[in-house]
Amino acid sequence: MKHVFLPFGRDGVDRAPLEVAAHMAERYGGKVVAMYYPRPVESPLVDPMGVGIIDYADKGPDLARDAEEALGAMRSRIAALASGGERVQLHEEALKARFGIGEAARLFDTTVVGKAEETDWRAVFETALFEGGRTVTLVPVGWTRPCGEAVAIAWNRSTETARLIGQSLSMLRAAKTVTVIEIEGWSVPGPDGAALAAYLALHGIDTKVVNGERSMRGPGLDVLDQAEAMGADLLVKGAYTQSRLRQMIFGGATSDIIADATMPVVFAH
Questions:
Q1: For the chain (length 269 residues), average pLDDT per consecutive 10?
Q2: How far is CA 120 from CA 9, 12, 67, 165, in A?
Q3: Which domains does the chain have, with CATH numbers?
Q4: Which residues is 33 bridged to in the sheet?
């Protein structure tokens, strides 16, 4: 987690999880790059060949003023950080459009996105998750303290989670405790939690395995119950083993964890 991306918009400067991003950079000896993205305009540019929207960008005075105000507000927040502020770089050139978040995210170890009630956090989260190809750290409302001391892995034996673990080895090595959480009856064919713990041991990561019972509430909430019981301050979860459309219709572990996690969660798809 040497290179941390913090996108922020006009309406989310105050709620952008700057403290969490700065703590991560300090913890892993890296840096944060904060970038402003513009709000979508009412008349987006549409590809005449029918491919769809290709740009939200607009050079009008309102958007220019939005960018100037948001950059100034973020500059003030960075200056006021009690710790880790020297590791935060404010990118003075705004992204051309919100979908540029996904493009920029491809050269960062993780993109930090904060949940909020009023901002477009879900669109930012999904853009980084599906277009960035790297990890996304989703931070619950009100969480400003460090994370990564006690890490839990939601292990359903999936390709998505296996890939995420490979991207997160340095983070796991830096943790004080790592726990693999398995839920009864929640898995695809693949190595079990004991096999994962043995693999992590080869990388110098001492890991505990916890097997939780499956409840009627669903495996996502069962994972969260286990993570909260062990005092995890960071959860690692592969995103959307089932398709996103299926989860939107029927629900699923990823959707439940996105909605209800009380600690930061690192996702990858």
A1: 93 90 95 90 50 50 84 95 89 88 96 85 92 96 95 95 95 97 94 98 97 92 97 94 46 86 95
A2: 9, 8, 16, 28
A3: 3-139 (3.40.50.620), 150-268 (3.40.50.620)
A4: 5, 89
Between CA 72 and CA 92 the distance in angstroms is 10
Q: Which own/partner contact pairs does 247-253 have at CB distance under 8 Å and 24+ positions apart?
A: 251/218, 252/218, 252/220, 253/154, 253/156, 253/186, 253/218, 253/219, 253/220, 253/223
Give, in order, the Cα–Cα distances in Å from 87 to each of 3, 9, 18: 10, 21, 11
Q: What is the spatial distance between Cα 174 and Cα 193, in angstroms, rounded to a whole number?
A: 20
Residue corresponding to tokens 């200056």: 79
Asked whether the whole model's pTM tops 0.90, one would answer no
**Which CA distances in Å does 227 have to 107, 196, 238?**
30, 17, 15
Q: What is the pLDDT of residue 192?
A: 97
Task: Return the structure tokens found at 176.
Answer: 């004080």
C-alpha dihedral (193, 196, 202, 204), degrees to nearest 10: -70
Q: What is the 3 state secondary structure string of the chain?
A: CCEEEEEECHHHCCCCCHHHHHHHHHHHCCEEEEEECCCCCCCCEECCCCCCEEECCCCCHHHHHHHHHHHHHHHHHHHCCCCCHHHEEECCCCCCCCCHHHHHHCCCCEEEEECCCCCCHHHHHHHHHHHHCCEEEEECCCCCCCCCCEEEEECCCCHHHHHHHHHCHHHHHHCCEEEEEEECCCCCCCCCHHHHHHHHHHCCCCEEEEEECCCCCCHHHHHHHHHHHCCCCEEEEECCCCCHHHHHHHCCHHHHHHHHCCCCEEEEC
